[in-house]
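Tokens for Alkylphosphonate utilization protein. Go.
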Amino acid sequence: MTDTMKCPACSSEHAYQDRDLWVCPECGHEWSGAVEAAAETAPDAGVRDANGNALADGDSVIVIKDLKIKGSSSVVKGGTKVRNIRLQDASDGHNIACKIDGIGAMNLKSEFVRKA
């Protein structure tokens, strides 16, 4: 039994175990300790496309909607295929670096592409 279990809803340290569930007396939230332990040990899901498929460096993706290019009058049309993407860690959400024919190098958000 883990004595340092905290409530995931309110972060209370007063949670207690009742059979196979953990209970928080402050907010009334109940959860399974096995689910939380599995979530902590699960590997990072990585970058996912709009449909939930995992993306990797070198994959090809298809843009799912028209995207305006900031600072330009150009538009990346929905259905444009982008080859050989590179994944990057970006704080602004643009986690795909790529080169689009006719436009050049740019960054995309993974939520606007699907795996080809």
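The mean pLDDT is 85.
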